Amino acid sequence: MMVKLTQDLARGFKPWKDMLYENEAALNALGAKLIFAGTEKDDDNKLTVIIDFESPESMKAFSGHEELKAKRAAAGAILETTVATPMSEESFTR
Question: Using one digit for the tens of pLDDT, what is the confidence trace for 71-93?
């Protein structure tokens, strides 16, 4: 299931990107695969991420993973601004 996450960053994209690369194996182990991550052209603190979760349970495991939450916050993610939007079953990648 594809999910769009939006989130504000306090320190720009690079610290968040570095954190993701360091923790990508943990993300994958939870049944999640990063499809896209980037910030708005005119605002390096407005993040959009597309993640493909294996199941609703893998999304729940990700959202409740306290260690990854702490690492994201340390990288500048303002967790309370996170909005997760599940995409329709008709979504696809090429």
Answer: 999 999 999 999 999 999 898 88
Spell out the residues 6+ positions from residue 27 whose beta carbon is closer than 8 angstroms to its own. 20, 33, 34, 51, 62, 68
Nearest to 7, CA basis, from 43, 46, 34: 46
Asked if 83 and 5 touch (Cβ cutoff 8 Å), the reply is yes
d(CA 68, CA 39): 20
Instruction: Tell me the DSSP string of 25-71.
Output: HHHHHTTEEEEEEEEETTEEEEEEEEEEESSHHHHHHHHT-HHHHHH
Predicted TM-score (pTM) of the model is: 0.91
Both tokens of 83, joined, read 């909005």
Share of the chain above pLDDT 90, in %: 95
